[in-house]
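Record 1 of the preview.
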Amino acid sequence: MRKIIALTAFILMVTIPFQVGSINYKNKEISLISFNITIHPDIKKFLDPFEGSFPVIKNSNGDKIVAKIKEQTWSNLVDKLQSDVGMIILPISTFGKDINYDAYDFPDIAISKAQRKGFSKFYMKIELRIEPESVQFANSYKAKYDTTQHLKMKKGDIKPMVTITLTTYPQNGIIPLGKYTGITISPNAWSASDTSFLDGLINANTKNDLTTLMGLINEAINDLSLNILS
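->
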């Protein structure tokens, strides 16, 4: 009987924090502990020929494409979370020299250390994935039997999907409070012969649609924001 009670208590302890609808982030300070970007090899291969169009970065260990995507995504994400969700997002330099930073000057620490060094109400980590649509849905029934999209795509073209995940943590304790995801899929395949998909990254030609990589990321951020508020 005691084992059953203990098991039930453990399950409740793990699952209750993810009942995220009741969490109020408005006017609460939140610090970033990590921001990881994963670009699928097929997408990276598609982007690499345009590396020369991206700004030079200080750290030779970094990647120019990743650096710009990370910088732009973070800026847009902060604006969205502060304006729509009401979070007060502290600067990425909040922890000072007491922690490790990645090649792009973003915090890269475990939640336990962040809680010891920080002082905010919440902490968060961000994960951004950019991959071909087929990677996510390759095992679905539709992907197996509907060849329409495959027939439309030419060799070398891609149809990207962006997934952004935000995980929040409390002031104390390593169990996440909430995990939220935003997803966007390009409605059309992209060709390397048309570089307009890089608008907003290599120039100031920002577009509020799904024809650019930043457009997809921004829409995923919007989807993420709605999920936090739901």
